[in-house]
Amino acid sequence: MFNMMDMFGKVKEFQARMKEAQASLNTITESGESGAGMVRVTVNGLKQIVRLNIDQDLIRPDDREMLQDLVVAATNKALENVEPKIKAHLQKATEGLLPNIPGFDLGNLMS
């Protein structure tokens, strides 16, 4: 039989673990690069840029627009790369707390 008190307890535990997991997202990092590695951006699980490396050969006033495009491309790639790590981190932190209910997706809580 389904016990509501147990379910409420698990929801509280789920919320606590989710909060803890979200607080530690800054420890997850992923990088993206563009321009054959001439621009490399590293982001954390909070989707913040933590490192930007630009090859010195790209730092020329006449290449400003290309450099801007490469930074944007590398940043977008890094953000794309970190997304699966964020979801895996949050899923692992809350694993086994709530029952597997068909059609009930907790993925939206982990974005």
UniProtKB/TrEMBL annotation:
Species this protein is from: Larkinella punicea
Entry superkingdom: Bacteria
Keywords in alphabetical order: Cytoplasm, DNA-binding
UniProt xrefs under InterPro entries: YbaB-like_sf, YbaB/EbfC
Keyword Cytoplasm carried by entry: yes
Subunit structure: Homodimer.
Family stated for the protein in its record: Belongs to the YbaB/EbfC family.
The protein, known as: Nucleoid-associated protein DUE52_31000
SUPFAM superfamilies listed in its UniProt record: YbaB-like
An annotated GO cellular component: bacterial nucleoid
Subcellular location: Cytoplasm, Nucleoid
GO molecular function: DNA binding
Function: Binds to DNA and alters its conformation. May be involved in regulation of gene expression, nucleoid organization and DNA protection.
Keyword presence, Cytoplasm: yes
